[in-house]
Amino acid sequence: MSSSVVCPLCHHIHSDIMSEKLRYESPRKVYKCQDCGLLYLYPQMTADEERLFYEKEYGEIYSSEKGTTPAKLFESRLPDARLYFEWTRTDLKKNHECLELGCASGYFLATIRDHVSGVSGIETHLLLKEYCENIGIHIYESVNECKNEQFDRIFMFFLLEHIGDPVNYLKGVMRILKKSGKLFIIVPNVDDALLKLYDIPGFKSFYFTPAHQFYYSKDTLSRTFRTAGISEFMIHPRQRYDLSNHMHWMMYEKPGGAGRYNDVFSQVLLSEYAQCLEKQFLCDTLYAVITKK
Questions:
Q1: What is the pLDDT of residue 50?
Q2: Which of 151, 99, 146, 147 is nearest to 121 (CA)?
């Protein structure tokens, strides 16, 4: 179904409705721009709605869904933090000042702080902010609080898709990044094989959520960067979920199943499957590295 809804990225006036059902109750729908291909929620949150959502509602939704606390979240996400450290470690030096935007309970910053000069974060949810400060991580209120060219390395892990004005947000982030500094961004890939290749209805209903205002592909993420005035970047494909997880979705249309058949599947098979998806950019994750000229 086509609609005259204006794309927030390229401003084309026609988009198609891709989904009317989100993971949680929401009046919003998922649209796809007929010109640039961006997938986005409409109507978009206002700036005040976005602020209140992340200060209050999002943390409550996540805590209720996962049955977690800041401390439990810290422990459960340490494996992810170690993975992101492996992706970034060759770009980290002892004299680097680092900032993570949307740092949650600080698991990534805690993982890297012995390898760099200093770590700070930006987090708006009160309980998560307090937890970070209790473990010795300084928290800024916002990007606007930081001075120009303050950080050598900045990290945005699964944050950009939450931002209602990504172009201006990226411009603000680049302002506080030092010359020759690097910005690392991780986002979900909307060309995920479970959506684009296998087209699993249950996954589609699970994938789209009111917390994610944009759904990026390699092409639309590149366009977003260029619109923000960013020209020096690389986007790498990453597959985080394994073949067992994909088979579980195919059979039951529910999340879970990671590692379920690993006593049957060889490591060679698992690696080859992930590599095949990555080569075609049908992977679940996009990992971007931006360098400030």
A1: 85
A2: 99
Tell me how far apart the alpha carbons of residues 166 and 160 are, in angstroms, rounded to a whole number: 7
| C-beta separation of 170 from 187 below 8 A | no
Distance CA 166, CA 155 (A): 15
H helical segments located in 113-208: 126-134, 166-175, 193-196, 201-207
Q: Cα(76)–Cα(5) distance, rounded to whole angstroms? A: 40
- Residue 141 C-alpha from the chain's centroid: 20
Q: Residues 179, 236: contact at Cβ < 8 Å?
A: no
Q: Where are the beta strands (DSSP E) in 39-116?
A: 39-42, 97-101
Instruction: Tell me the pLDDT band of 129, cut-offs 50, 70 and 90.
Output: very high
- pTM over 0.90? The answer is yes
Contacting residues for 235 by C-beta, under 8 A, at least 6 apart = 218, 221, 222, 286, 287, 288
Closest CA to 42 of 22, 32, 27, 28: 28
